[in-house]
Design brief:
alpha/beta
Length: 317
């Protein structure tokens, strides 16, 4: 679920007003690949592009082929890159890597489904695109969870979902480091803190800073299953309030900073507050992988590593 999908589809929609852009999707990889299956790029005949299916060299070659008119665009077509060692070297693909692209030329008949996908993303819903490879027609199906791309001889099934939102409770130094890494890894990052002075002293990257009580902020901004909530203040009055609300939501991940001793005390308090055991079991605490982290950036790396590992598990998508 990449935020770039929204940007790609929005440009595709805009460019449909003046031309017939190409929507190119990675549908298969073999060996190493710079971009995962499902990555998309939209390209116009005059060379404009948004999105990525490689480090750039594949896009350059693809633009040249499209400008030369090598593909008619009457129906979706498959194109494979990396079929030889020479091509891998020329295109900068990892050794032995292959990617298969699906080229689809859009026209005005595609406008409704593109608009519908964008609307679903704005509402933080998942939707699955069913593309008939024979006719080039697309239908959509709302889905509860993100699904993996699948390709058959007759159809493509591709899911579009909202960007994962990371809400950091506490605007301290660790939040700075986590926000940097989160943005670099395509999370939508928000920072909240009820303490006005902490937000006023924020020196981290440009993210949404929201002052308010953490339970209110969570209910409003991070209650769906595409949300990550991490408490970082070391103040039980703030963190516990946030966790009580977070653990009752559909948030995909809830984590709390602290040592094992701090965590044990926190769990005792949550049980005293009659938080159900099934909710407490959802808490990742101490947050992050145990890699001996000490500094803020090391702790941030451990947290992002845990999130990455969990997101790579099939059931977490």
């Amino acid at each position: 679920m990449q935020a770039i999908d929204h940007e790609v589809l929005q440009h595709a929609l805009d460019w449909l007003q003046e031309t017939r852009p190409w929507l190119c999707t990675i549908v298969k990889t073999l060996g190493s690949s710079p971009r995962p299956v499902g990555s998309v790029v939209v390209i116009t005949d005059d060379g404009r592009q948004v999105g990525s299916v490689s480090g750039g060299c594949v896009e350059e070659d693809l633009v040249e082929r499209l400008r030369a008119g090598e593909y008619a665009g009457e129906r979706p077509e498959l194109l494979e890159y990396g079929v030889s060692a020479e091509e891998n070297e020329r295109l900068g693909l990892p050794c032995g890597g292959r990617i298969t692209l699906l080229l689809q030329r859009l026209d005005e008949t595609d406008r409704p489904w593109v608009e519908s996908v964008l609307a679903a993303l704005d509402e933080r819903h998942c939707v699955e695109r069913h593309l008939d490879l024979t006719t080039g027609t697309t239908s959509l199906e709302p889905v509860a969870h993100f699904t993996s791309l699948s390709l058959s001889a007759k159809a493509l099934r591709q899911c579009f979902g909202p960007r994962m939102r990371m809400l950091l409770v506490g605007a301290g130094q660790l939040a700075h480091s986590l926000a940097e890494l989160g943005l670099a890894m395509d999370y939508e990052v928000m920072v909240t803190d009820p303490r006005e002075q902490f937000l006023a002293q924020w020196e981290g990257p440009p993210v949404d800073l929201v002052q308010g009580m953490p339970d209110d902020i969570i209910r409003e901004h991070a209650a769906d299953r595409h949300s990550v909530i991490i408490t970082l203040t070391h103040d039980p009055r703030i963190d516990d309030m946030a966790l009580m609300e977070a653990l009752s939501t559909d948030a995909w991940y809830v984590g709390a900073l602290g040592s094992q001793r701090t965590t044990d005390k926190r769990l005792t308090r949550l049980r005293q507050l009659d938080i159900p055991e099934e909710q407490i079991a959802r808490l990742h605490a101490p947050v992050g992988l145990d890699i001996g982290s000490k500094t803020p950036i090391e702790i941030a790396v451990a947290i992002m590593a845990q999130l990455t590992r969990l997101r790579r598990q099939p059931e977490a998508a």
